[in-house]
Amino acid sequence: MAKEKEKITQELGVNDQTPREIVAELDKYIVGQDEAKKSVAIALRNRWRSHKLPDEMRDDVIPKNILMIGSTGVGKTEIARRLAKLVKAPFIKVEATKFTEVGYVGRDVESIIRDLAQTAVRMVRKQRTEEVKEKAAANAIERLLDVLVPEPKRSQNPLGKLFGNADSDATPAVEEDTKKPGREFVRKRLLAGKMEDQVIELEVADHAKPMVGMFSGSSLEGMGDNLQDMVSSLMPKRMRKRKVTVATARKILEQEEAEKLIDMEEVSETAVELAERSGIVFLDEIDKVAVKGSSSGPDVSREGVQRDILPIVEGSTVMTKYGPVKTDYILFIAAGAFHTAKPSDLIPELQGRFPIRVELKSLLKADFEKILTEPQNALLKQYKALLQTEGLALDFRADAIERIADLAEHVNEQSEDIGARRLHTLLEKLLEQISFEAPDMVKDGKTEVVIDAAYVDERLKDIAKNRDLSQFIL
Hints:
This protein is of the alpha/beta class. It contains 21 helices and eleven strands.
């Protein structure tokens, strides 16, 4: 069992991509910010390296937490999002502004680790479900056959019971002979997919809806989860009848059978170990809890959040419903714009726990041009695909792309620098009229619209000329 657990932890917990491969994957979606990508890639690779060390040395190697500093819209959150899809480890992204000091109204910081443990359980459970998929599917077919070809009811003669009439059992013996061939016939039709749309009545467990908000917003949050689980385990399962198609019934029964085959206690143990050794927490908006100088009022709570985060980042044990989780080897990546505050405004102990500092650069015209065209989810590709659904083809000329990028850089310099988010606003304003008239244009026989620099200047002329740009854009 220990070897099996170690195997699962290695499969799920560690990425085997090289730093270069990780950066190449991030390059598909994020333009520039090579330094930040490199730091994240090295941190992930160090996870892989630490798992290869002997046990006595592995315990001494703690992850080097990262602090990403950069204005909004330069790619901090996008790196986190893409990282979440890339890694095979429990990953959770949270905003520091959601949490408050213990004693104030709001979530306590320990809920970060509880959520991470929940993510780990979901990952291990999904893998275990895949492992028993075939067995669960076979069991589901048998249960479906029980519904489609029910066992014949024995004809009960009330007088036979009184007088011990043995003839009442004679009829079922004949029916039993005919039952098996009928069951095999239906099985063949089921496996051939010929009964998928047939509606049947299925008895399923009635899962009680979670008590949303119970104990939330306090340090008793975890107690609320445990109490809810305890009550649900004591109560007998209620069953209810549903009318569903055979296709839907198969999915429901496969899920129920998979749950029976999975040992949830073993899943919890593996998940806790996975969260401890391979968990990654992305802590966004960390600058919003930084406090400048000595202050009072709400800033007291914000400094309290830092003090509460500190033991978790340093290494402590958090109780979850799956068991205690040690945070010593969890990788923390913090990010913030730090417009009004500086990293030095964080309490010194917390600063010391983020030894790797990465500054993300503001985006320039060349970056905006790449963002518009190069990534797999590039903005221009999105708008083209959206309008293509109406039958209208958009053709962005090179001079138009250059002009949009130039405007984005100009507006960011003159007003607030909101990075790539500026492009969303510019493009919405640029394509506002086309998006509105697209269905009518197609009806009139127009199937293509060419967007060049002249069209960009015409639609965005107010922004280009007016010095008080903020009144036009955000």
